[in-house]
Amino acid sequence: MWRKSSTLRHPLFPELKAAEADKARGSHPALAGTFLQLWHAGLRGAAARRAIFLVHDSGSPWVAESEREMLWRLFEVPVLGLLVNERREVLAYECEAQQGMHLNSSAWSVPHAAVDSSACSCGRSGQRLVPAASILSAAERELPVAV
């Protein structure tokens, strides 16, 4: 899914050098990889001291809550999603509020996603990708109900 030519960095935590999960052994400040790469790393005994960066491509940008929960139980550190392209450039990233993915660039689109320009509860401004269904359900809550 993504090449391993350089260390992947989260834009909010650039000081954390993430070890590639598919090669990781021992303890690291952070681990980065797909769900399966991270899962296998944990089963091999790899550990993350500060964070897990769950990497997705633009075809599947959302971190499933079940994936997040399984990785939390395995590593006991925050799990933050990173959306990357085939060159491992970070296109969007999750913050600690986990209310969508903050955009690094608006020059592309993701299927089944909408852009939300409202302020994130983390306090950062700018656009975020959110599941299109969450925009629809928020709008539905505002519609009057016929009685």
**Low-pLDDT segments:** 1-5, 135-143
| Strand order within the widest beta sheet | 1-2-3-4-5-6-8-7
**How big a fraction of the residues is strand?**
25-35%
Query: What is the average per-residue confidence, as pLDDT, rounded to a whole number?
Result: 82
Provide a brief overview of the structure.
This protein has 147 residues and is an alpha/beta fold. The protein is 22% helix and 29% strand. It is globular.
Question: How does this model look, in words?
Answer:
With 147 residues, the chain is an alpha/beta fold. Helix content is 22%, strand content 29%. It has helices at residues 35-44, 65-75, 132-142; strands spanning 18-20, 27-33, 47-57, 79-84, 90-93, 101-103, 113-116, 128-131. An eight-stranded mixed sheet has the order 1-2-3-4-5-6-8-7. Helix 1 packs parallel to helix 2 (65-75). The protein is globular, with a radius of gyration of 16 Å. Residues 1-5 and 135-143 have low confidence and may be disordered.
